[in-house]
Amino acid sequence: MASNKNQNKPTQTRVENLDHSPKKAMLLSIIPGMGQIYNKRKLKGIALFILFAAFAFVMFDFVASGLQGLVTLGTEPRVDDSRVFLIEGILALLFTIFYAALYWINIQDAKNEAQKIRYGWKPGGVVENFKNSWDTAFPYVLIGPGFGLLVFVVILPLLFMGFLAFTNYNLYNAPPRNLLSWVGFENFIRLVTLSEWRETFLSVLTWTITWTFVATTLQIALAMFLAILTNDKRIKAKKLIRTVLILPWAVPGFVTIIIFSALFNDNFGAINTDIIQPLFNTTIPWMTEVMWSRIAIIMIQVWLGFPYVYALFSGVLQGISDDWYEAAEMDGASRWQKFTNITFPHLMFATGPLLLTQYTFNFNNFNIIYLFNEGGPAVRGQNAGGTDILISWVYNLTFTNSQFSMAAAISLILGIIVATFAFFQFRRSRSFKEEGNM
Amino acid sequence: MNKLFKKISSNQMNRKQKSRFEVGLIYLVLAVMFVIIAYPLFWAFAMSMNTTSNLYAASLSPENWSLENFKWLFTSPRSDYLLWYRNTLFVSTVVTVVTTLTVSFVAYAFSRYRFKGRKNGLYAFLLLQMFPVLMAMVALYILLNIVGLLDNLWGLILIYIGGGIPMNAFLVKGYFDTLPKSLDESAKMDGAGHFRIFFQILLPLAKPILSVVALFNFMTPFMDFILPRIVLRSPENYTLALGLYNFVNAQFSNNFSRFAAGAVLIAVPIATVYLMLQKYLISGLASGATKG
User: Fold this and answer.
1) Domain ranges of chain B
2) Spelled out in words, what is the top-level CATH class assigned to the domain B80-250?
3) What parts of the sequence cross the membrane (chain B) (predicted)?
4) For A383, which DSSP code?
5) A311 to chain B: nearest residue by CA?
6) What pLDDT tens digit does each residue of chain A (438 aa) get?
């Protein structure tokens, strides 16, 4: 039925109309709706014109004052709140972009329709047109609510943070009492030139990178080791073993970290009183010495993080065909050769992008740092604790030191690092590329 | 002849012994791992059953275990556990309902329609998924402060919903993609509208993934500590994780066994759900992350 309809229609009405110019339609569309009227779609044209005009009329004041406010950030201290100016400015900016995109689509639409008319297409009746535009608009209606939420809850804060990094918002210069002003890259420059900032920044950055690399790699190595052991054919009760090994993943992280911070406590923790003391007749200052705190945190993270990777690896290992190993055995391959040539490549190929997410996760793993001992112990001469990673340092700068601009600047650096990781992950996941081509 | 036979058999013996030794070694390693995994969990459980709330005097032996700590949580006028529980339940319910609905709309659009901006939209979602909401905490703190949603459960709810959309949308989209398109095409031919196809055909088929998304979103507020920490200020607004943390932090050694009791009550149901759904969760998350 439907296909029949489609076949008949063009043959019935195909009268080429070469006088109808797409260019003219485009030019007329500079005033929204005029192009559509030229295309003999009066109702659509009028509706578009009213919509665009109404939006422009209603929003003009808001956008103009918003953009102006974004430049000045307020002029009267105590009356103007720079933060509000900043937010209104960002909203005005977003609205402008949105409006411009719609404007562009309007011009394109007039052009496309004119082109179709030129080659003999005729717009149908009002009802059919209305149904068609409902069909085109439907996916946007579906996405609308989710997208709106995303704009206000995720994109707006991220942009706000980005702008904040270039202002001078701190404890002594805080709205609404004072006005903020744009300071360009000053925060970033201070971060690397002023000795008090530079030393802290460098030591936190080094520890963040070490932490990410060591904790995640150990996690993966342990997971791989255990996955290979439990995949051995001679082992029985595999299901039970796997369940127990996955247990740390199933228990909520904040609970286990607090339990561990009790176990590692210098004075009454079970690890000191029950294990270290009887065996070595000494106690280890897990909470008060930087090096031991770092070791403890890495060990805890390995405990917390290996099960997920283990589960992934187990799944992959079960899928590797025995033929590979039998063929290798025929050729007299040693165990190590089988591992490096069969098992390891299989694991990496199947889970590569996911392992990368493990690294980004630990890079921003605020939970463990904060819950273990709030980034401590304190280190002399710097305003971050010994186990503070960048994200927990940002937290401290925001909530205890009120160094908002600096916190935003560091967050921005964090964001750039994560974006680089994200880029590599994009490239590595082939299936997304396939999807993108659709 | 006899010698050769002996040699072969001893060789076999050797190999058998070696194999047995290896298996023993593997079991030994696994046993050590079991102890390392079980010890902290068992210790916490034992703490929660201890009558003394003091960490110094607590013992691990099950001789004088009791449920006193649990009783304290629910009955003592000094305990806010039920209040925290109610707050968390409220946040969880709203987040679950709103997220599941919006996410299934978004996923349906991305999976079934080809529209302008679709590809860019997918890219944007994938990119946003990489950035935890936490990264913008400075901005969130100031923004919520200005609009008056700081120290308000609705502020927390908004962040949970918005932050969860990209990731969840990908999970559900991946599932929609596996459902045959011929289903909705034949329904369209029979004259069903967009909403009808969605609500009467696709949504019922997507029940498994939607229940996982719902369950996940429901559990998040019970486990999450950071966002409540940033958003909530006054004790009467605390969610469970934040409340328990502040409770144990106030007087570490004295409150610990009560904390342990409260934690066991959260951890046991959540761990059960995770273990039951482990296969589904791990493979589902994996395909959601790589497939896009």
Assistant:
1) 15-70, 80-250
2) mainly alpha
3) 21-46, 89-110, 122-147, 153-176, 197-219, 256-277
4) S
5) B282
6) 334 444 444 444 556 777 778 888 888 888 888 888 888 777 888 888 888 888 888 888 888 888 888 888 878 877 788 888 888 899 999 999 988 988 888 888 888 888 888 877 776 777 777 778 788 888 888 898 899 888 888 889 999 999 989 998 888 888 878 888 888 888 899 888 888 888 889 989 999 999 999 999 999 999 999 988 888 888 888 888 888 888 888 888 888 998 888 888 877 777 887 788 888 888 888 888 888 889 999 999 999 989 988 888 888 888 787 888 888 888 888 888 888 888 888 888 877 777 888 888 898 888 899 988 888 788 877 788 888 898 899 998 888 888 889 999 999 998 888 888 777 766 665 444 444 433
- The answer to whether the CB atoms of B263 and A255 lie below 8 A apart is yes
Closest chain A C-alpha to B244 CA, distance in angstroms: 9
> DSSP characters for chain B?
-HHHHHHHHHHHHHHHHHHHHHHHHHHHHHHHHHHHHHHHHHHHHHHHT-S---TTT----GGG--SHHHHHHHH-TT--HHHHHHHHHHHHHHHHHHHHHHHHHHHHHHHH---TTHHHHHHHHHHHHHS-GGGGHHHHHHHHHHHT-TT-HHHHHHHHHHHHHHHHHHHHHHHHHHS-HHHHHHHHHTT--HHHIIIIIIHHHTHHHHHHHHHHHHHHHHH--HHHHHH--SGGG--HHHHHHHHHHHTHHHHHHHHHHHHHHHHHHHHHHHHHHHHHHHHHHHHHHHH-
Q: At CB < 8 A and 24+ separation, what contacts does B127-131 make?
A: B127/A419, B127/A422, B128/A150, B128/A154, B128/A155, B128/B166, B129/B166, B129/B167, B129/B170, B130/A360, B130/A418, B130/A419, B130/A421, B130/A422, B130/A425, B131/A154, B131/A158, B131/A415, B131/A418
Matching CATH number, A191-437, of 3.40.50.2300, 3.40.190.10, 1.10.3720.10, 3.40.50.10160? 1.10.3720.10
Measure in Å the smallest separation between the Cα of A302 and chain B Cα atoms.
Answer: 11
Chain A residue with the nearest C-alpha to that of B223: A252
Q: For testing the chain B interface, which of A150, A228, A362, A395 should be mutated: the one with the most B CBs within 10 Å?
A: A150
A80 token code pair: 């103007």
Q: Where are the domains of chain A?
A: 13-164, 191-437
Residue of A259, A287, A431 to mutate for B, most B C-beta atoms under 10 A: A259
